[in-house]
Amino acid sequence: MPSALPDGDPAPRNGALPAAALASLPDHPWGVYLHVPFCRVRCGYCDFNTYTVPELGGDGASVATYAGAALREVDLARRVVGQARPVDTVFVGGGTPTMLAAGDLVSVLDGIRDAWGLAPGAEITTEANPDSVTPESLAELAEGGFTRVSFGMQSAVPHVLATLDRTHDPANVARAVAAARAAGLQVSLDLIYGTPGESLPDWETSLRAAVDLEPDHISAYALVVEEGTKLAAQVRRGMVAAPEDDDEAAKYEAAERLLSGAGYDWYEVSNWASEPAHRCRHNIGYWSDGNWWGVGPGAHSHVGGVRWWNAKHPSAYAARLAEGASPAVGRETLTADQRYDELVLLQTRLVDGLPVERLREEGQAAVAGLIADGLIEGADAVRARRVVLTLRGRLLADTVVRRLLDLT
Amino acid sequence: MATSALQPHATPPELIRNFCIIAHIDHGKSTLADRMLQITGVVEERAMRAQYLDRMDIERERGITIKSQAVRMPWEADGQTYCLNMIDTPGHVDFTYEVSRSLAACEGAVLLVDAAQGIEAQTLANLYLAMENDLTIIPVLNKIDLPAAQPEKYAAELAGLIGCDPSEVLRVSGKTGVGVDELLDEIVAQLPPPVGDADAPARAMIFDSVYDNYRGVVTYVRVVDGNLNPRERIVMMSTKAQHDLLEIGVISPEMMPSKGLGVGEVGYLITGVKDVRQSKVGDTVTNSAKPAASPIGGYRDPMPMVFSGLYPIDGSDYPDLRDALDKLKLNDAALVYEPETSAALGFGFRCGFLGMLHLEIVRERLEREFDLDLISTLPNVVYEVTMEDGKEIEVTNPSEFPYGKVSDVREPVVRATILAPSEFIGAIMELCQQRRGSLLGMDYLSEERVEMRYTLPLAEIVFDFFDQLKSKTRGYASLDYQEAGDQSADLVKVDILLQGETVDAFSAIVHKDKAYAYGVQMAAKLKELIPRQQFEVPIQAAIGSRIIARENIRAIRKDVLAKCYGGDISRKRKLLEKQKEGKKRMKNIGTVEVPQEAFIAALSNDSSGEKAKK
After folding, report:
1. Given CB atoms, is A6 within the 8 Å cutoff of chain B?
2. How many CB atoms lie within 10 A of CB A184?
3. Using alpha carbons only, what angle is made at residue B135 by residues B118 and B252, rounded to the nearest 5 degrees?
């Protein structure tokens, strides 16, 4: 997640949620996100809330004590939402989750299981750096209940990896994928396109390399130059070229062509799966009004139209929990109009799209024009009365959303 | 300081001295005036507000006196108390007519010149007007306390101009007060007293009128013949409008009601009218019961020279803009406007101004005092178009310029006077050449300073001529201009088309030789300023149906944010909420969405478009 926190209202010290929000728990998917805010080195493009060991200093939070702080937040969450329902999905992201010992990750998962139980067939994912896993650590994760691992492959081209400050040897990715498979884990690979200096053939090389590893799932993200990163400084000084939309569009089209050719179907703007069962259910929760508790520094949560976010720095986060207080520093209770904007914004990103009848009058009035402009699928709109993006529409999803919300 | 002031209405004309100060902006007129108020005891030192006479904030910030006023000051010389009336004059070329009326209210003028800078073109223009009005001129160098002062050099320059001896040029410092007593003595000694017929029907000339929120219009007059008294019924001779004199008095330094005003006196009238148009500068006031046979002369209606469309950025502010213009009009007899509709900019007003400064002041007051966000179109002049069938059309808005069978187009021209160090002669000639100027003559004021006289089309100087002149002469040149009739010219209208639709706000009337450059520049600028759309957008510049320049805005292919997970959602939604706000600031030209910022940037003076690109 991006590291800058939004403006919002203050969050109550005990983390309590309004009854109306809690009422949504039984009939919406329930997920837990665990943020691990540590990395060995910070990559030049990354503005996520993560820290290297020297950046942390000595107070409060460290890699060694982090699982304990996270477990305290799980306890708080259990008190706030009550029994709720068994957890459908867990997703551990970062940072680099595998900076924590596998045993620490498993102990937090155990805490989650103790709090609410895990639903049958629950999806339990961790992100991982191909360099920081071993067959043993992967096996330990699988035994502890993890079902899925998502590797940050980013690229298979050395000069692209170098620009991104990624240090891994592309060969490590193959070894890591094989080890994860051997451990019985589903595998997803993350790729980044649009890195300065990356040619279209470079990108196609990376796509082919990813496909050749036969993962269950592939995510492909356009590189965004975020304020405050080393990459942004380099772009500003003219040391590297800023990514260009046209180039990224061509690369997205290449991804769709290559991935669909290899049997991966898109189910969200940036995500492809080898079969519907391999779609990431945790992430689908974000886009379809699911509830989730985000554990960890800077983590965001959502329950029934209330969004909140935690203190960013691991020390501040740990200190609040040590006092028995909620680590949340801001929240917003969405109005009906805001929830509608989010519905349109998020659900149109999905291959299942948005039912036309969920749209307000001005949105429904925009549908025909969007079909005419080739931005949404005419057949889906006519037969299933759903707004589903075309390939062109996926690239111009912001335009589609603005037109559905009558902002043009 | 005088021991006791003379009473208004009972002051013999021979003890009155009416004078003004002619000076360039920032040559220290206001400081000197303040010092005079203090030395004559009109303003106590502790009540001294810096630059007492310039009341409007904008004036003070810009160092420009827009509205003149008149202050009555007692002064004792050779044991006799005199009454000095200091009449403040506007200093800018846009207000030449108002300056001429202020001068007509005086018998003499203090020609005030910065001892470190020498005389400037505008000062020269006003000096010329003063001499035409037979005013006695007292040459004065100000700021002699400055280290950079060159009093010998500029005394010689002034002496050469008005034909006196350099030793007769007074030297003062408004800041320290040095020489100001002597100056006041010289005003008494050198200026002739006013002359008029005390027994004749009253005649007073209006040299200014100002709208005051509490009192209505305050009219400043100089009595020429007879006298004006409280509760009389008066007549404005140009309009025949009658009013009751609710109050009459002098300013010293605030309004002080008096028993009346007699021959040669300067003061104010209040009649309760609410609109300065009922109290026009230059008009003659007389007594309704015993009217004068003829007015004083020299009156004329103000004539707008420059036009521009003013539009609210938020269309819903249109009624507020109308109300604001209605209010400004009360205090600005020269402002004219009528409603206008632009396909690109919505509802607004086509406004006429005396010149560029007047335009800027009005716009700034609208934004500042009425809290309006405005776009103004490129300023233009008035064209007289004659069609082949003999029909004549007056064009004040380029979009009304007729297509087709035009036989003649006439444009206003001005006589411009430029003063500058002689090293810049080449640069100035080049600039004036580019602006279709023709050189009338050139004189050396001194070894290093030159006066150049040009005829220039007004249209060529309303845009950025003064800025260009300043930048090409490192700020040293000064400019003055006066209307000088009109001329036929080979003028065409260039339209700018977006996706085949004419954008009326960008149409311009330009000389045929410059049409191509305008078209190319505007198309390139818009290409930078208009965000890419879902489809390719051609930008064309055209004269009639002939395309003279073309650019393309390529279609946008990707706008989606690649990642949208937990923490991205609030951020993304807030972005959308911002766009909702921004929607108000979007205009549709056909199917092309153009942000207001693009119009503002494209219409700004900045020819490179660099500013807008951020």
Report:
1. yes
2. 12
3. 90
**How many Cβ contacts (< 8 angstroms) between chains A and B?**
110
pLDDT attached to residue B63: 39
Fill in the amino acid letter for B343: A
Element of type H or E holding A342? helix A336-347
Domain ranges of chain A: 19-287, 337-404
What pLDDT digit, counting tens, does each position of B360-409 carry?
A: 889 888 988 899 988 888 889 999 999 999 999 999 888 889 887 889 99
> What predicted TM-score, i.e. pTM, was given to this entire model?
0.68
CA distance B117 to B121: 12
Residue A286 Cα distances to A29, A282, A391, angstroms:
10, 7, 22
Q: Where are the beta strands (DSSP E) in B88-179?
A: 108-114, 136-142, 170-171
Reduced to 3 states, what is the DSSP secondary structure of residue B287? strand
The pLDDT of B139-161, averaged and rounded, is: 93
pLDDT at B68 over 50: no
Are residues B578 and A9 in contact, defined by beta-carbon separation less than 8 angstroms?
no
Distant-in-sequence, close-in-space partners of A357: CB < 8 Å, separation ≥ 6: A385
- The model's pLDDT over B290-334, given as tens digits with 9 standing for 90+, comes to 999 999 887 777 778 889 999 998 888 999 999 999 888 877 778
Tell me whether residues A341 and B571 touch, CB distance under 8 A.
Answer: no
Q: Answer whether A282's CB lies under 8 Å from A125's CB.
A: yes
Identity of the amino acid at B255: M
What residue in A sits closest to B573 (Cα-Cα)?
Answer: A342
Q: How far apart are CA B337 and CA B352, in angstroms?
A: 6
- The helix/strand/coil state of A4 is coil
Over pLDDT 90: what percentage of chain A? 78
From the number of C-beta atoms within 10 Å of its C-beta (0-12, 13-18, 19+), residue A111 rates as: buried
Cβ density class A354-367: b for 16+ within 10 Å, e for less: beeeebeeebeebb
Does A298 reach chain B within 8 Å, measured CB to CB? yes
- Helical packing angle, B568-583 and A336-347, nearest 10°: 110
Mean pLDDT in residue range B494-518: 91
Q: CA–CA separation, B574 vs A338, rounded Å? A: 9
| Range B586-609 average pLDDT | 73
List of chain A residues whose C-beta atoms are within 8 Å of the C-beta of residue B559: 245, 395-399
- Cβ distance of A8 and B570 shorter than 8 Å: yes
Question: A8–B563: do the CB atoms touch at under 8 Å?
Answer: no
Within 8 A of B573 by CB-CB distance, chain A residues are 338, 341-342, 345
Distance, CA of B86 to CA of B18 (rounded, Å): 6
CATH 2.40.10.10 fits A19-287, yes or no: no
Tell me, what's the pLDDT at B605? 58
One-character DSSP codes across B60-109: HHHT---S--EEEEEEEETTEEEEEEEE----SGGGHHHHHHHHHT-SEE
**Helix, strand, coil in percent for chain A, rounding step 5:** 45, 20, 35
DSSP B222: E
The 10 Å Cβ neighbour count of residue B373 is 15
CA-CA distance, B563 to A2, in Å (whole number)? Answer: 10
Quote the strand ranges of A64-132, DSSP E: 87-94, 118-128
